[in-house]
Amino acid sequence: MKPIVRVLFGAAVAGITAFGNASAAGKSIVLDGSTTVGPIAKAFAAQFTKSTGVDVTVSESGSGNGAKSLINGTCDIADMSRPMKDNEVAAARAKGVDPVKNVVALDGLAMIVHPSNRVRNLTREQLRGIYTGSVTNWKQVGGPNAPVVMIQRESNSGTQDAFKELVLGEGATVSSRAETQASNGAVKSRVATTPNAIGFVGLGFADRSVKPVAVDGVQPSARTIRNGTYPLHRQLFMYTNGRPAGAVKRFVDLPKTPEGKRIISETGFVNLY
């Protein structure tokens, strides 16, 4: 689990701001969950605290733990890179919690390899073969004669769940040879330093240290994710207990504001609104 990131700024800005009145100062908002949503949540937190004086705490423990935190009442907002599962919704309602999803941004699962790898495109069938273990050498998919080092996320990860749904399909399981990393950043770092590795991260994490490959001939980009042509696209969420109100509503409505849209673009994700 990553350490809690607390974003604090000085006194509230007087008067009306883009996010509402500074009269909300003294309250606090707690977020927990997805490491994919983390960069957006932390950037929102910094801007929101600066503009309103509201103390915002962001923890990145994975989508599954974010759901648990909302269910147990230990966070106000659960950051999730996948929709809540039926059993999570049932557990929430059993505790009197009404999980409401608020779409934050659009994202694509970027399949990344080391920059030295000459492979530029993989089909979903080839990706399925790599991760289920039937493809073990890069030469089988047009790459060098070298063993494939596959990197996955931990079982609590929403990104892992999205990968299984979008790539593996029902009934398929990841090979036991896969190496597990605990965050998008850790996957990116491992691939960036391992010539024969392949992994998957949220689009905002795919920087120049790695090479995103096209999937079914389509490169991940803001345009291809927004128009749905990139096959591994998804929505990112902030779940609240019931319809949000007050400071929490202003926070989850940030993606609809000019400042929120700027932050989403700057963090490498795709605006929905």
Structure explained in plain terms:
This protein is of the alpha/beta class and 273 residues long. 30% of the residues lie in helices and 24% in strands. It contains 9 helices and 14 strands. The strands form 3 sheets. Strands 1, 4, 5, 6, 7, 9, 10, 11, 12 and 14 form a 10-stranded mixed beta sheet that branches. Strand 9, helix 5 and strand 10 form a beta-alpha-beta unit. Helix 2 runs parallel beside helix 3. It is globular, with a radius of gyration of 19 Å. The two termini are 31 Å apart. The N terminus is likely disordered.
Question: Brief description of this entry?
Answer:
The chain is of the alpha/beta class and 273 residues long.
Helix content: 25-40%
Tally of alpha and pi helices: 9
Number of distinct beta strands: 14
What gap, in angstroms, lies between the N and C termini? 31 Å
By helix and strand content, what is the structural category?
Answer: alpha/beta
Order of helices and strands: EEEEHEHEHEEHEHEHEEEHEHH
Q: What is the 3D shape?
A: globular
The description of the largest β-sheet is: 10 strands, mixed
Strand content: 15-25%
- State Rg: 19 Å
The unreliable regions are: 1-26
Mean pLDDT figure = 91
Which key terms come to mind for this protein?
alpha/beta, 10-stranded mixed beta sheet, 9 helices
